[in-house]
Write a structure and sequence with these properties.
By secondary structure, the protein is an alpha/beta fold. The chain has 15 helices and 14 strands.
Length: 417
């Protein structure tokens, strides 16, 4: 009932007065009270018309945008509600804030922010930026009425927006997605771009649809080359800046972009699930030098690569690729070492590990604490290398972690009980 009344009130009086009334709607106990308020707003509207208030007035509903007979803005600047959480999203929010503060305003009139509650998000980058720049902040999912906004923008938000919320925005909700959709739909497109060894990626500006992520129509798409040895963190920063510029360009020409939108291709869709610790285990028998290198570039800034040594988990730090490692001696190559075999190269202070098709290196490892390759060799490996026993040499290998099947775990738990 209140929502219906709110829509009616929008056509009666000043936006700023109505907004103040709406945010205090809990003070009104019944429909009759709201109706009395609407009568008062009619009087304010008559007063406003008599005083011939201009569009530049702070209470003007239309601001500087053209408004049709239904109260819909037909051109920018827009009133925007932004949804986001992380550093990737901050770049777009920063661009929107600069546009709002520019003169004349070309894309953004007013700007408010929706992010996760403080007790859940601690100090999320978007919340921190919004606070520093005095942007109004709403805690998801309690965001209040949205009828005062023209368009929503969601960037790296992580929550599926319901259909009734999307429909409240006359121009829908736009999404800045760091991939060339339909490739790499999902929450971690940048990581999977690097992990898969893609040589080309880009940014897509699309309209979101309910119930599924990243399936809406495309408004604009631009490509970007992936530089060799580029990490996911570096690529993400590049795409964040690229996406922010594309977002402002889209908003400046929004009606035209929406009119010319196109549906995503049904071919070539791939999924990019969240990264996890399970992805960090190195499989020395099955993974090549390039695959291990891409794994490090994709997740190494967040999750250390891992392996097993003498039954303990060891983290592998400061990766050295196959093109940068010291030359392995001819005698070692002829020996055809087992994947997981270890060598220490003293001159470069590098721990070398044999994998499927060659050797990769690490400058440091972490057991209970961080150790340089020299410290790990002197404190742990040297005693094994001095011994000639084949059994002891095999025990010294880095071993591939092989998780037990779920049914085996259940059987063991049942036996223990």
């Amino acid at each position: 009932m209140y929502v219906t009344m709110w829509i009616q009130l929008k056509h009666i009086g000043s936006q700023c007065v109505i907004t103040r009334v709406w945010h205090q709607h809990k003070l009104f106990r019944n429909y009759a009270c709201l109706w009395r308020v609407s009568s008062r707003l009619r009087e304010l509207r008559v007063f406003s018309n008599d005083s011939k208030r201009t569009h530049d007035s702070p209470c003007s509903f239309a601001s500087n945008s053209a408004v049709n007979g239904n109260g819909l803005r037909e051109r920018p600047p827009w009133r925007i509600l932004f949804f986001g959480t992380d550093e990737f999203a901050v770049e777009s929010l920063k661009a929107l804030t600069l546009s709002r503060d520019s003169s004349p305003k070309t894309a953004v009139d007013t700007l408010e922010v929706v992010t996760l509650p403080a007790f859940l998000s601690k100090e999320l980058p978007v919340r921190r930026f919004a606070s520093q720049n005095e942007l109004p902040i709403h805690d998801w999912p309690h965001i209040g009425p949205c009828e005062q906004f023209d368009v929503g923008v969601v960037v790296s938000f992580g929550c599926l927006l319901p259909e009734d919320l999307i429909l409240k925005f006359p121009y829908g909700i736009l999404n800045v997605h760091p991939s060339l959709l339909p490739r790499w739909r999902g929450p971690a497109p940048v990581f999977h771009t690097v992990l898969n060894g893609d040589t080309e990626t880009g940014v897509t500006i699309m309209q979101i649809r309910p119930k599924r992520f990243d399936v809406g129509p495309i408004l604009i798409q631009d490509k970007c080359l992936v530089q060799p040895h580029c990490t996911a963190q570096e690529l993400g920063a590049t795409l964040a800046k690229m996406g922010a510029k594309m977002l402002i360009s889209t908003l400046e020409n929004l009606p035209e972009r929406i009119q010319n939108k196109k549906e995503q291709s049904k071919q070539g869709a791939t999924f990019a699930p969240k990264i996890s610790v399970d992805m960090s285990w190195v499989n020395w028998e099955d993974q090549s030098c390039d695959q291990i290198g891409r794994l490090f570039q994709a997740i190494g800034s967040r999750i250390s690569l891992r392996t097993l040594w003498m039954g303990d988990t060891i983290k592998l730090l400061d990766f050295v690729g196959k093109n940068e490692i010291p030359v392995v001696s001819e005698s070692e190559r002829q020996r055809q070492p087992t994947p997981g075999s270890l060598l220490y190269h003293k001159e470069s202070n590098t721990l070398l590990v044999c994998c499927k098709d060659g050797w990769v290196g690490f400058k440091a490892v972490k057991l209970k604490k961080r150790l340089s390759a020299a410290d790990f060799y002197n404190g742990y490996l040297h005693q094994y290398f001095l011994r000639k026993s084949e059994r002891q040499q095999k025990e010294c290998l880095f071993q591939t972690y092989k998780p037990e099947p779920k049914d085996m775990k259940k059987r063991k738990l049942h036996q223990q009980v």
